[in-house]
Amino acid sequence: ASGGVRRFHLTAQEGSISWPGMPEPTPTWGLNGPFLGPTLRARRGENVEVTVRNAVPETTSMHWHGMHLPAAMDGGPHQSIEPGGTWRPSWEIDQPAATLWYHPHPHGATERHVYQGLAGLFLIDDERSDSARLPREYGVDDIPLIIQDRRVDEEGRLVLEDSGREPGMLGDTIMVNGTIGPVLEVAAQRLRLRLLNGSTARTYALALADERPMRMVASDGGLLDAPVELSRLRLAPGERAEVVVALTPGETVRLRSLPVDLGAIAVPALTGADDEFDVLELRAAASLAPAPEPSWGEDPLHVPLRAQDAVRTRTFALQGRTINGARMDMHRIDEVVHVGTVEIWEVTNTESVPHSFHVHDVQFRILDIDDQAPPAHLTGPQDTVYLEPRRRYRLVLRFDRYADPAMPYMYHCHMLLHEDGGMMGQFVVI
Ligand code: C2O
Ligand code: CU
Ligand code: CU
User: Fold this and answer.
1) Which positions fall inside the Plastocyanin-like domain (predicted)?
2) Most exposed: 21, 195, 201, 314, by fewest CB within 10 Å?
3) What is the CA radius of gyration of the chain?
4) Ligand 1 atom closest to 411 (CA)
């Protein structure tokens, strides 16, 4: 089904915010406002035209994280927007319903631009998500949560300076959609939370305070094959998940971030793994509207990603600020992929620090982790995966529709300090 055209306007601009308890307004950046940006939403089959204006005093870009689109529209470091400049990408939405996001990608400065407030959600709908038995009233029982940590100094300024130290900027304050200490009044028995870890470095273990089970229904790239019950969800920077939580009338329950198991990390405390935070307080009304058990049908357009279809295997070793021993070079193409083919990418975190792996343009599936089948919540479509230390992840990916020998896509660690430091490579699809 092909649809009409959806036009969006985004202006990256300077602003300031007065957060409660802070003496002075904090200088920030935002899109169409002082901090973060609007939720964009489009349907599969629709054409999207975006006008991105850069009104901040630095060169930036705007990347559509998780989107399948031509490399020239991707908004990576090759699509710079100068101060005062405008960029007009357009593409057709050609992927299943999902919770995607957008953020700048200027080479070497992504951490700072995201930290200052440039990011937003991009939701995709399709027929399958329309007919799914899932809460879908945006802002009522279908709630976007951009979760970020920030630090503000005594003068009320966002702390940016100790960038460069592992694992990157770790804040002591959790911001959800740009607010501190949010409370949500709930009027239905079930609530869908679209979670984005929009932090630059911190990985969360999200759970309800009593660790009651939640239903995970979607990963980065859309609905799972079936709901997965879990009580804690690990979410690394850049990753998304949708969960459905059930509430009983009159109760109050907090969504929290608990100490997170990052795998065999050398010094967990240095990564913020021991920290605990409240994220969101949920207050259920005295009577709640009934909501069905989450369920959904098959995607009629789904083409399975199968290892036996792979035409080749590539290996990627992450170490220090390098991938396969090389730092990002805007003028070097690291990998050449053929359009219409399936590949296996074998990705290894070779050391005892956290890394993640993100690939532009595609949604991959995890085949195995150290030869073991992945746990159920890691079997969905993903564009970003947390890499536990000393483990090897085999991913299966399909590169279809868009070929451009002159314009690369990126793959990189999504811990933004690492990305900015050069832990990124470029591939072209020809
Ligand atoms: Cu979310 Cu290359 O980025
Ligand atoms: Cu991306
Ligand atoms: Cu990394």
Assistant:
1) 25-128, 171-247, 316-430
2) 21
3) 20
4) 2
Asked whether 418 lines ligand 1 (CB < 6 A), one says no
ipTM (interface predicted TM): 0.99
369 alpha carbon, distance to own chain's centre: 21
CB of 119 closer than 6 A to ligand 1? no
Ligand 1, atom 1, residue with closest C-alpha: 65
Q: Where are the domains of the chain?
A: 5-130, 142-289, 307-429
Report whether residue 360 contacts ligand 1, using a CB cutoff of 6 Å: yes
Assigned CATH topology for domain 307-429: Immunoglobulin-like (2.60.40)
Is the beta carbon of 412 within 6 A of some atom in ligand 1? yes
Distances 153 to 91, 160, 171 between C-alpha atoms, Å = 41, 10, 11
Q: How far, in Å, is the centroid of ligand 3 from the Cα of 320?
A: 8
**CA of residue 382 to ligand 2 center, whole Å:** 11
What are 323's strand-pairing partners?
318, 326
* Shortest-distance Cα residue to atom 3 of ligand 1: 65
CA dist 396 and 394 (Å) reads: 7
Residue 238 Cβ contacting ligand 1 at under 6 Å: yes
| Distance (Å, whole) CA 420 – CA 416 | 6
Distance of alpha carbon 282 from alpha carbon 105, whole angstroms = 34
Asked whether the whole model's pTM tops 0.80, one would answer: yes
Give dist(CA 206, CA 160) in Å, integer. 25
At which residue do the structure tokens 């804040």 appear? Answer: 171
Domain 5-130 has CATH 2.60.40.420: yes
| d(C-alpha 100, C-alpha 98), whole Å | 6
Looking at domain 142-289, its CATH architecture is Sandwich (2.60)
DSSP 8-state code for residue 78: T
CA distance 48 to 68: 12
Alpha helices in 345-390 (DSSP H): none
